[in-house]
Write a structure and sequence with these properties.
46% of the residues lie in helices and 17% in strands. By secondary structure, it is of the alpha/beta class. The strands form three sheets. The protein has a seven-stranded mixed sheet. Helix 5 packs parallel to helix 6 and helix 10 packs across helix 13. The mean pLDDT is 95. The protein binds nicotinamide-adenine-dinucleotide and zinc ion.
């Protein structure tokens, strides 16, 4: 088992990674004794794994499920769950277990962060994307019709338990999508880790517990370091948005036919082309990143042509727009992210040709 700490003063917590870490729930749920426990679980994950998780929880634990998928990150899904908490008389001393992928973490974290103005919660991520990214850092929230993650709170978990036993059932595409965020962490913060993605692609895709544990631990260490230096994204934390300005635009326009991580992979390709054309990133480094993404089975091209003006408009819709300027996090070399608020429409359109279908 590996442990990574998120150093946040009074809100510090540990991330435990390895086979069987779910068993740590047993001690946690008994401290303090008689604590009310509520599991909020993604339905598909509950069908597959709730019985295994429950072995480490008191019999009195209440398990509530919600439908799988991004649409569950909504106030409409949250409201009846809040009503169930009220019916069960869930008190301030209670704790929530978020069980599932990033949707479960964001929704259950939001419920934990707002129920009675905030109760404890633990993240038990079951998708690779949630393990390497969403479960760490305390951003929680739901979507509105107007956009993703518009309503939410910063609410740090008490612990993150990443149990590699749960990853075997994750669909291949979901697994690969999580790897895009892993490549992103490598290129913004740990260039040597990029080589691991390239040299060990086969082992990584094989999902062996030891390989997964190492990969996830390295990702969590990067995210924990960034988050502990800038919990509320006033500055440094924004580097985690590398690949996401174009990535989110593509995700929005393809109406979620691609997974988030797949869009981030395409976003990194385009944003690295912008950086290469600016002379910030060498052609060799851009090629190395592109090869690592391809080796992990991440998309090289858009599945269908997208309207250019629509892409530019979608970039402007992004949350990273400040004072009207679209913000990018480009690479000025491997491991050196640099913010750019002056990327022109022409630069975007020219770079988009690298992912043209
Ligand atoms: N809070 C953050 O910092 C942060 C960071 C990145 C992403 N996110 C959010 O995370 C969400 C995406 O997360 P995701 O990709 O995990 O999506 P998800 O939670 O929808 O999970 C993807 C799919 O995999 C299934 N699944 C999950 N674990 C499984 C398992 N072990 N076996 C079989 N099926 C399993 C789910 O049922 C779902 O259908 C988005 O809403 C995004 O906004 C949040
Ligand atoms: Zn992302």
């Amino acid at each position: 088992m590996r442990t990574v700490r998120v150093e946040l003063g009074p809100r510090a917590y540990a991330i435990s990674i390895g086979a069987g870490t779910r068993r740590l729930l047993e001690a946690w749920s008994q401290s303090p004794r008689g604590r009310q426990i509520v599991v909020l679980a993604d339905q598909a994950v509950a069908d597959l794994h709730l019985s295994r998780l429950s072995e480490s929880l008191p019999k009195s634990a209440l398990a509530l499920t919600f439908p799988s998928g991004e649409t569950s990150k909504s106030l409409c899904v949250a409201e009846p769950l809040f009503e169930r908490l009220a019916q069960a008389r869930i008190e301030r001393g209670a704790a929530i277990v978020a069980f599932g992928g990033g949707v479960a973490g964001d929704l259950a974290g939001f419920i934990a962060g707002t129920w009675l103005r905030g109760i404890s919660f633990v993240q038990v991520p079951t998708s690779l994307l949630a393990a390497v990214d969403a479960s760490v850092g305390g951003k929680t929230g739901v979507n509105l019709a107007a956009g993703k993650n518009l309503v939410g709170v910063f609410h740090q978990p008490e612990a993150v338990l990443i149990d590699t036993d749960f990853f075997g059932t994750l669909p291949e595409r979901e697994y690969r999508a999580g790897l895009a965020e892993s490549v992103k962490h490598a290129v913004i913060r740990d260039p040597e880790f990029l080589a691991v993605h390239r040299d060990q692609a086969e082992a990584i895709l094989g999902r062996k517990a030891e390989v997964l544990t190492e990969l996830i631990a390295r990702n969590c260490a990067i995210k924990a370091d960034v988050v502990s230096r800038d919990e509320r994204e006033t500055d440094l934390r924004a580097i985690l948005n590398h690949g996401h300005t174009i990535g989110h635009a593509v995700e929005h326009l393809l109406a979620y036919e691609l997974r988030h991580g797949e869009c981030v992979a395409l976003g990194m390709r385009v944003e690295n082309e912008i950086a290469r054309r600016r002379g910030w990133l060498s052609a060799a480094d851009a090629t190395e990143i592109a090869r690592a993404l391809t080796g992990l089975g991440l998309p090289e091209r858009l599945p269908r042509p997208l309207d250019e003006q629509a892409i530019l408009a979608a970039c402007r819709l992004d949350k990273k727009v400040r004072h009207g300027a679209v913000h990018f996090v480009l690479l000025a070399g491997l491991g050196t992210p640099r913010r750019a608020a002056d990327v022109t429409d022409d630069e975007i359109l020219t770079a988009l040709t690298v992912v043209a279908p």
